[in-house]
């Protein structure tokens, strides 16, 4: 439950209405390599990939957080926050697909 402090930090310091920590398989594999999905797989998704930050677990609380964000955390998974849970679930699905395509293209 030390991840609970991350959620509290998000709600305290941003206007986010939802926060989610998840471990989608391919996105988590990229996070464990301190990488984010490749850009230009789907041009419409580039702005989403641009939001992704990569961090070590011990650096999460030092990250500058806007009102929405995506953090790939090594050995943890993906921490996201934003306006709604449905928005975060959509982002998680898109990032997982982009992560898979990024890895297949290697």
What this model shows, in words?
Strand 3 and strand 4 form a beta hairpin. The model has no long low-confidence stretch (mean pLDDT about 95). The chain has about 110 residues and is of the alpha+beta class. The protein is built from 4 helices and 4 strands. The chain is about 40% helix and about 20% strand. It has helices at about 5-15, 25-30, 45-50, 85-105, and strands spanning about 20, 50-55, 70-75, 75-80.
Keywords:
single chain; 106 residues; alpha+beta; four-stranded mixed sheet; 4 helices
Secondary structure elements and pairings:
Elements: H1 4-13, E1 18-22, H2 25-32, H3 46-51, E2 52-55, E3 69-73, E4 77-82, H4 85-104
Parallel strand pairs: 2-3
Antiparallel strand pairs: 1-4, 3-4
Helix pairs in contact: 2-4
